UniProtKB/TrEMBL annotation:
Pfam families: DEAD, Helicase_C, HRDC, RecQ_Zn_bind, RQC
CDD domains cross-referenced by the UniProt entry: DEXHc_RecQ (cd17920), SF2_C_RecQ (cd18794)
Annotated source species: uncultured Desulfobacterium sp
GO cellular component, one term: bacterial nucleoid
This protein's name: DNA helicase RecQ
Enzyme Commission number(s) of this protein: 5.6.2.4
Annotated PANTHER family: ATP-DEPENDENT DNA HELICASE Q1 (PTHR13710:SF105), DNA HELICASE RECQ FAMILY MEMBER (PTHR13710)
Gene Ontology BP, a term: SOS response
């Protein structure tokens, strides 16, 4: 069985090795055991049911929540020569009947369905006349009310399974939360032993958190080192999206906006342009990204702070699905915390508490000086032990020199004490910096001995310090009102028995440190560009996105190994039998004439 799977992997998909877990999952499904797969975005979930589907005699049905995802998968499979179809509301009557005919003729291996389509009597009776060997539930977190994307029709899928008693069920999701996983399992009645959980560590994502200073110039600066690459910039509000979009547009960037204020049509057009590589940058609110499968997103910039770690993880997850390096930059501004707090304060009391806990976890991640992957993966319940990942700003910064900030801590903490632990960070900073604001005079805080003793540091520097005092356990902040309270440890600092070490933020503009891509720099960029143009031409002719023809990795390997013959082309990532036949000659021609040209130039 496994040999068969391995052959299909090479011949149909053009890949040489299974990724971690894939082999075991496929074996499990082939042994007709119900299976739950938890794997991060880009981990390679689709193959886990696509390969069994090609081995099973009968049909595999795949439930998927979004038409765009179904379309994408069917396009990919069709290009690979696999007979796959979908049934959903986007089809015309004619297309629908044609697909039904093909199903009846048993010419189809994979059928993609929206859950509401599957639940109709018409579909169920059609399927009852066919041999269904496998039922895949993609994006299975939609089953759970605790998930970020609950769909009531998904909940009914458990019951539908009784219609296909001989079908093995495989449910797949990239959801990292334990509660959602448990919910999926109990609702589908799955056995724990058939659960496969991959690590959520996306090794190819470079995580970078930079203090937000002049965000527009920081962004432009970053973009200048990434010309020609696809990326997404996430902003907090529609207004911010429009503003940044206009600036970039005026600056000559290939860019489009995306947010809920645009018409459905505009949104669809902008998304399509991005997916087809006709536009390079999308500036978007969180609304963007669901249902896009574009594998070559090379960067994600968080222009504003995301709401919580889950949102952040989900958004950076859209980068680097192809496994090649991608950069994730978060511009971390303390002003953004205030914005998010403002929105939190509009919520009900219970919701406020939860939202504050989530926000604090995010702040801890952003402010950490250890490897970013540690707080990130710990948040998802993973025990990440590696000291240095070499793929985050902290690991590459080398050892940071920590300064002795005991005296500054004493100033700040005593100011908290003298104002009876009733005020928040900003007011304490105002006192230390000798502000003349009305609030100061109302409380007669200009009379305090700590008034004006912190003028040597800017408000921003003090804010950064205050966050460190909190993170070091010297004071705690009331989740609701933001007022500060001293801890036992703070008194040791007063007495001088405990020293405080930390960082004093620099005042000048920080550039987003650029990350070098050593390995991938090794390919022939001139050839790559020629191959890319050919790929775009073929894609436009076929009416599909370029990555459906070949992913970037294929073109990079071609521009590294220069395959010149039919056989050598088979060794390239992503070249299976069907694509080889269909497109091989186009690319070989380019490579051969490029090399001949090169040789001729060298001779003359
Ligand atoms: P997910 O659904 O988990 O987000 P996909 O199934 O879309 O991920 O896979 C992500 C990318 O990795 C796709 O381009 C896919 O073709 C590729 N891929 C999956 N498995 C392998 C493998 N064993 N070898 C090489 N590439 C793979
Ligand atoms: Zn690291």
């Amino acid at each position: 069985m496994t040999d068969k799977a391995k052959n299909i992997l090479a011949e149909v998909f053009g890949y040489s090795e299974f990724r971690s877990h894939q082999r075991k999952i496929i074996e499990n499904v082939l042994q007709k055991r119900h299976t739950l797969v938890i794997m991060p975005t880009g981990g390679g979930k689709s193959l886990c049911y696509q390969i069994p589907a090609l081995i099973f005699e009968g049909l595999t049905i795949v439930v998927s929540p979004l038409i765009s995802l179904m379309k994408d998968q069917v396009e990919q499979l069709t290009e690979l020569g696999v007979s796959a179809l979908f049934l959903n509301s986007s089809l015309s009557g004619e297309e629908y009947s044609r697909n039904v005919e093909l199903l009846k003729k048993k010419e189809v291996k994979l059928l993609y369905l929206a859950p509401e389509t599957l639940l109709t009597q018409r579909t169920l009776s059609l399927l009852s006349s066919l041999q269904i060997d496998c039922m895949a539930i993609d994006e299975a977190h939609c089953i759970s009310e605790w998930g970020h994307d609950f769909r009531p029709e998904y909940r009914k899928l458990a019951g539908v399974r009784t219609h296909f008693p001989s079908a093995t069920c495989i449910a797949l999701t990239a959801t990292a939360t334990l509660r959602v996983r448990e919910d999926i399992k109990s609702s589908l009645g799955f056995d724990v032993s058939n659960e496969f959980i991959a690590s959520f560590n996306r090794q190819n994502l470079y995580l970078n958190i930079t203090p937000k200073d002049k965000p527009v110039s920081q962004t432009i600066d970053f973009l200048s080192g990434h010309s020609g690459e696809s990326g997404i910039i996430y902003c907090f509000s529609r207004k911010q999206v429009d503003k940044l979009y206009e600036i970039l547009q005026d600056g000559g960037y290939s860019v489009r906006p995306y947010h809920a204020g645009l018409s459905d049509k505009e949104r669809a057009v902008n998304q399509e342009l991005f997916i087809k590589d006709d536009v390079q940058i999308i500036v978007a609110t969180i609304a963007f990204g669901m249902g896009i499968n574009k594998p070559n997103v090379r960067f994600v910039i968080h222009f504003d702070l995301p709401k919580n770690i889950e949102t952040y993880y989900q958004e950076i997850g859209r980068a680097g699905r192809d496994g090649l390096k991608a950069e994730c930059v978060l511009l971390f501004g303390y002003g953004d915390i205030r914005k998010i707090k403002y929105f939190i304060n509009q919520k009900s009391e219970d919701e406020q508490l939860v939202a504050n806990i989530h926000l604090n976890a995010l702040l801890q991640f952003a402010e950490t000086s250890v490897c970013r992957r540690r707080p990130l993966l710990n948040y998802f319940g993973e025990d990440y032990q590696i000291e240095k990942c070499d793929m985050c700003d902290n690991c590459l910064a080398g050892d940071k020199e920590l300064a002795d900030i005991t005296v500054l801590a004493q100033k700040f903490l005593s100011c908290v004490k003298r104002t009876n632990e009733m005020f928040g960070i900003n007011h304490i900073i105002d006192i230390l910096r000798g502000s003349q604001s009305q609030k100061i005079y109302n409380f007669e805080h200009e009379k305090l001995s700590t008034y004006g003793i912190g003028k040597d540091y800017s408000g921003k520097q003090w804010f950064h310090l205050a966050r460190q005092f909190i993170n070091n356990g010297l004071m705690i902040q009331d989740a609701k009102y933001g007022s500060l309270k001293l801890t036992e440890k703070a008194y040791d600092v007063f007495k001088g028995t405990e020293k405080v070490f930390g960082m004093i933020e620099e005042e000048d503009l920080r550039q987003v440190k650029q990350q070098k891509r050593e390995v991938e720099n090794d390919y022939d960029r001139v050839l790559f560009e020629k191959l890319r143009i050919m790929r775009k031409e073929l894609a436009d002719k076929a009416g599909v996105p370029p990555y459906i023809i070949f992913p970037d990795k294929t073109l990079i390997e071609m521009s590294t190994h220069y395959p010149r013959s039919d056989e050598s082309l088979f060794y390239i990532h992503g070249v299976g039998t069907v694509k080889h036949k269909k497109y091989g000659a186009y690319f070989l021609d380019i490579i051969n004439s490029y090399l001949e040209q090169k040789i001729a130039n060298n001779v003359s």
